[in-house]
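User: My collaborator sent over this chain with a note saying "see what the structure looks like." That's all I know about it. Can you take a look?
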Amino acid sequence: MTNPNIIRASRAVLHVTDLEQSFAFYDALGFIETARDENHLYLRGLEEHNHHSLCLKKGTEPVVEAISYKVEAENDLETLAKLLKARPRRPLAAKRRTNRDGSRPSCN
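Assistant: Without extra context I'll predict from the sequence alone. Here is the result:
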């Protein structure tokens, strides 16, 4: 089986218990705040062209909600799913960047 062509990590959604404390950490790493509301903080790296690549969500406990990757072609998603399914732990289903109703996720 060939390896999928993962170009880069594209997006992460993390639940954090303290948005301000989390912002201080990512700000020290050089991330740029692009937007926020009372429950979300959107950040990107200095050379990124997208609105954000990191979404911090206020939550009751730290959780990794999503990590997304940019792949070269659609069939790389299928290759990646097959590769992960061959491992002892079962991955969550590979997902597209839309909800079942066709809407976009809140931190996309």
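A starting point for your reply to your collaborator: Residues 74-85 form the longest helix (12 residues).
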